[in-house]
Specification:
Layout: E1 8-12, E2 18-23, H1 24-27, E3 34-43, E4 49-53, E5 65-66, E6 69-72, H2 79-91, E7 99-107, E8 112-121, E9 136-139, H3 141-147, H4 155-165
Parallel strand pairs: 3-8
Antiparallel strand pairs: 1-2, 3-6, 4-5, 4-9, 7-8
Length: 167
């Protein structure tokens, strides 16, 4: 398995307005083309957070634990449409009420992403996609704090979780 390097992403300005398009391969090549993604942090009523484990075949951060749901916005799609699609595809959840908690630019050596951050409280069944994820589970806030900085979690998740949920 591998990511589709020809998948078409919108290229955006800092405010999210679309200014062009590029392939996944171009966006993840170190070109620093700003492209939008959606993230959803799924909390249960006990205050635990669901984290997904990224498969070893992923082109970015393979094998690490990451945000409950994270996915690229397809060209021509709104952030809201992408969020519903990604949550269904990755966790099999279709009945949830997202709350947008922020938006920021994440930068690494390989890419720049405009991240639309959401949260929800959900106690129903979670069915991680066998084709997109390497499983997942709910983590306590203490478990997350202990794992931070030790190479188990993606740097993107760590910085985002600190900014929006541990402040």
């Amino acid at each position: 398995m591998s990511d589709n390097s020809e998948e078409l992403f919108p290229v955006v300005a800092d405010d999210g307005s679309v200014i062009g398009s590029a392939t996944r391969g171009e966006c993840h090549s170190g070109s620093r083309l700003l492209h939008p993604v959606v993230h959803l942090h799924v909390f249960n009523s006990k205050g635990e957070v669901y984290l997904q484990r990224r498969p070893e075949w992923k082109d970015i951060q393979p094998g690490k634990w990451d945000t409950s749901v994270g996915g690229h916005i397809d060209y021509g799609e709104t952030p809201e449409q992408a969020l519903v699609r990604e949550v269904r595809e990755e966790l099999g959840i279709t009945d949830f009420k997202p709350e947008r908690v922020g938006m920021y630019v994440f930068e690494s050596a390989r890419e720049r992403e405009l991240v639309y951050v959401h949260r929800t409280v959900y106690d129903g069944p979670v069915t991680p996609s066998a084709s997109e994820l390497d499983g997942g589970r709910f983590w306590s806030i203490q478990e997350i704090r202990l794992a931070m900085g030790r190479g188990f979690l993606t740097p993107n998740f760590e910085s985002e979780f600190r900014k929006f949920f541990l402040a």
